[in-house]
Write a structure and sequence with these properties.
Layout (H helix, E strand, L loop, with lengths): L10 H13 L1 H7 L3 H9 L28 E3 L8 H4 L12 H20 L7 H26 L23 H18 L14 H16 L8 H4 L4 H7 L7 H14 L19 H5 L9 E5 L6 H6 L10 E3 L1 H4 L28 H6 E2 L3 E5 L4 E5 L20 E2 L7 E2 L2 E2 L6 E5 H14 L3 H15 L17 H15 L6 H7 L3 H5 L5 E9 L2 E8 L20 H6 L10
Antiparallel strand pairs: 1-3, 2-10, 4-7, 5-6, 8-9, 11-12
Helix pairs in contact: 1-2, 1-3, 5-6, 6-7, 6-8, 7-8, 8-11, 11-16, 16-17, 16-18, 17-18
Amino acid sequence: MAVLLTGGVSCEVGKDLLDKTEITDLNRERTFSDSTLTFAFLSSAYGDVAFNWEYRKYSSTRNGTTDATDDAISAVSNNGAIHPMVDGTLSAMSNSPYKFEWETSYKNIRHLNVFLANVDRAPLSVAKKERLKAEARFLRAWYYSILIKYFGGVQIMGDIIIDAEHMFEEKRNTYAETVDYIVQELNAAAAALPASYTGNDFGRATQGAALALKARVLLYAASPLFNGGNIGLELSASPERTAVAGYLNYDVNRWRLAQSAALEIMNMNRYALYEDPAADSNPPGYSFSRVFLKRVNSEYIFQYNLPLNRDLEADFFAPSRNSATRSLPTHNLAKEFGMINGKRTSEPGSGYDPANPFANRDPRFNYTIAFNGTIWHNGNTNTKTPVYTYFGAPVDGFHTKPFHTGYYWRKMQDENTAWNGGSHTERCLPIIRYAEILLAYAEASNEVDERDKAYDQLKLIRKRAGILPGDDGLYGLKAGMTKEEMRAAIQHERRVELAFEEHRFWDLRRWKVAESQLNGLQLEAMKVTRLAPNQYTYEVLPINHANSKLVFLKPNYLFPISQLERDKNPNLVQNPGY
């Protein structure tokens, strides 16, 4: 099924156009002498925007970076695509985990450079050309943001168009230079992009998207891995290898830049946490669940539009609903969700009951993870029936998989939908949403000792989540937190709010805590045993899976440059430790 792109161009059409215009200058001449073909040429660059996004990452298995963290386990034993990311075997000679991130990003950067070099020849108004140029610069910055996240500083190609005669001699730019370039491009794009679109243009890059991506890039740049925690220095790497791995010093002003970038979006007064009109007549947290099922809502800043679909239900729900069940959330993630009063399950006064562990939880738990007894549409009977995960339950029971976790993914899915029946969803991919911006602002504010601002954002997010305010109006947050306590609270909030959205994997790296949090960690499952109707016992067990013992080595904070790329270009310095 063709994926609908923003601008109404399908992946197949975009690919065909790109292939044809790559062949000869004559085809390029024809493309940019036709306004429709010019527009389509740019639109095709949107086709790969989500190639690197979570469950789309490895098309054969639909496994993403969540399965390479403590949040989930691949349903495929010893998954080749992600295994090197969890067992410490990443190397310049391996392909699967990062080959496409490099190749696809640079392919699109070249494509956008072709567009920028030729668009002025197109029969379009000056205003339309300027807007399309801004879109192209945003998209180019988007692909560079993927590269810097994986590899650190990379070659900045500027407006160069690589052709068959090109000699690959470019050195990698430093991390600082790469950040500066991306920010510069996004500032220029934001100045020329519209605030919103209507009709077929809905979903294209906006001013808010450019500013939001800038905020993300600056937040990463301010984070410990790059801001004072350069792994090149720790590994005694050469100056050139160290310079591509991050800044050489710590500077609190980098946190202020990240804070300012997030505030710029907040001050637009265009975005807000989504509140569904039907929230009052539904269980707590309903608005949180619906944000992912409404194509048009106040929270999406940048998204990847899809046609009406049942994609996630087909790939990530329970087998009894005809799902392929490609990934399962761990108990490690499940226990991170606190209670409806905002307290952690281990806190005094939380109300957590080990004999009834799914009761009165943070409502986001119910909308992120399916557990024993979750009610869901059954396409075979066209009714809603429970999903049973207890040991011995048919189809979905704990015994049905050698590494069952006792849970299934529910987030971004509709309980009225199964792969073989029910309604189609409006779901699109939430690449950047407003909740991320609020959390970025909270994190940066805490690091510059403005904790009141951090409290404000966490309370907004928890309120929308359905957590009770409590007598103190803190939604379960501890009063008077230190910087370290607030940092831990923000990191916890990101984990539960942004689960399964391509964040945990990168957060562990940029915070430089992957070594301490992953090495030696045992991934866990929740085994439910049925004693009688509606009577169960609960037992936490280790998961027996090739990917369940995580190994993280210091060089793994960045990915290695493929040796194939280095063979093409002898000036391409390798990352520290590889």
